[in-house]
Amino acid sequence: MAVGPVVGSVCGKYNGQITSFVVLSCMVAATGGIIFGYDIGISGGVTSMKPFLLKFFPDVYNKRIQDTKISNYCKFDSQLLTTFTSSLYIAGLIATFFASPVTRAFGRKPSILIGGIAFLAGAALGGAAYNIYMLIVGRVLLGVGVGFANQSVPLYLSEMAPSRYRGAFNMVGVGVLSANLLNYGTQKINGGWGWRISLAMAAFPASILTIGALFLPETPNSLIQHNVNPNTAKKMLQKVRGTDDVHAEFDDLVTANEISKTIKHPFKNIMKLKYRPQLVMSILIPFFQQVTGINVISFYAAILFRTIGFGESASLMSAVVTGLVGLATTFTSLLIVDKVGRRTLFAIGGVQMVISQMLIGSIMAAKLGDHGVLSKGYGFLVLVLIGAYVAGFGLSWGPLGWLIPSEIFPLEIRSAGQSITVAVGFLFTFIVAQTFLAMLCRLRSGTFFFFGGWVAMMTVFVYLFLPETKNVPIEKMDRIWKQHWFWKRYVCEEDDLEFTDGTQKP
């Protein structure tokens, strides 16, 4: 039985290349990924800083210093502390459902602009916070910004980039590393106010996104969808692709738009049998991305290193090291994903992550205990294994968890599908962020076995149920499901029940 075949007949490559125009447009839009990654990295770093804890979470600080009987795994267990981290994601979850109709009705560019403005406001409030309420309200505003940006930016990038280079635009790792570097530097500022710089500097990438959005062109797909003069849309496509010969791609865009006009309720339509594979992927891929445990590392890397006995500066530097590893492997993935394929990278990264997590859990179970400290040798080994785990994620679920959902939806359900993807991602990011410190306290080293089990499961899922999307034009993506050993029974069965215009046969 063929499992997830590599598609050859559906590729139908369009003319075009990576132009300076599309690179500049995508780089501006990709700062949406930077602000998301920055926020993931910054929160865990500041919550390990003594001045920040004393000002906003003194109970956590006093428990960690004064209570010698408390387990290593429970020193940071605080619902208020996790609320600070996770409030952004519940706000993003709600915001994405408002972002979807905005993106569909007005285009990708307005959603990007709204996201940038909201993130700017949140960064300003967080940097100026003098009580916990200001801090959390600032996080909520950051969540609104990330909700709009995560809904619109992946669509923008996937529609602007040529099909064979779609995997080459992802900047989340840059944001995580930038946050880790900044945390390490600001922690050393005398006076204990360095955390304000860490939180406020989120305004820098947000400013690039906001100002850049004013000058971003709308995607050819969106121009056609909003009934702009066809010649204008075609000229934009020619400019984006760097060639006048765009007839095949333009015709496919127009055809996809005609189909999308027949869809009045995209969220209802995505429930149809013919869209079952896209719906399943829009739910399971972001869910799996979160239960890899990566945000445990990203949110709480510095806290985790403090747990195993590293000092404050050493913890933050260790977070920088893992951030560098993640960034390097993410860029490697982006360079090779359109050559080796998505499924191959999922398999390599998945195996690497499972082995690393199992070894980390075993070392912590055998050598750390509730009140011990890892020796320097074992501490260094755990750091290396966490780096190996982050490298596996950077090759696979990091960039591909964003890329796959952005490229598999047909135009008529694209905005709705992306909203579901982002909402599921936010929901489980919130759940993981809100429960991890309590989970670490209760499961202890078993936490790593828990996440490792999920990674093993999702690696098998990808092998069985995700067809290869390498080099497949977005507007012809529906064909890969018709050729897949499992999904063809749903897609082809529904097609048999419809006329060519999409109406149901009696």
From TrEMBL:
Record keywords: Membrane, Sugar transport, Symport, Transmembrane, Transmembrane helix, Transport
Domain Major facilitator superfamily (MFS) profile span(s) in chain numbering: 25-470
PROSITE patterns associated with the record: MFS, SUGAR_TRANSPORT_1, SUGAR_TRANSPORT_2
GO molecular function terms attached to this record: monosaccharide transmembrane transporter activity; symporter activity
Key word Magnesium present: no
Topological category with respect to the lipid bilayer: Multi-pass membrane protein
Membrane-spanning segments: 21-42, 80-99, 111-130, 193-216, 279-303, 315-337, 344-366, 378-404, 416-440, 446-466
Gene Ontology CC terms: membrane
Location of this chain's protein in the cell: Membrane
InterPro entries on file: MFS_dom (IPR020846), MFS_STP/MST-like_plant (IPR044778), MFS_sugar_transport-like (IPR005828), MFS_trans_sf (IPR036259), STP/PLT_plant (IPR045262), Sugar/inositol_transpt (IPR003663), Sugar_transporter_CS (IPR005829)
A Pfam family matched in the record: Sugar_tr
Protein family membership: Belongs to the major facilitator superfamily. Sugar transporter (TC 2.A.1.1) family.
The protein's name in its UniProt record: Major facilitator superfamily (MFS) profile domain-containing protein
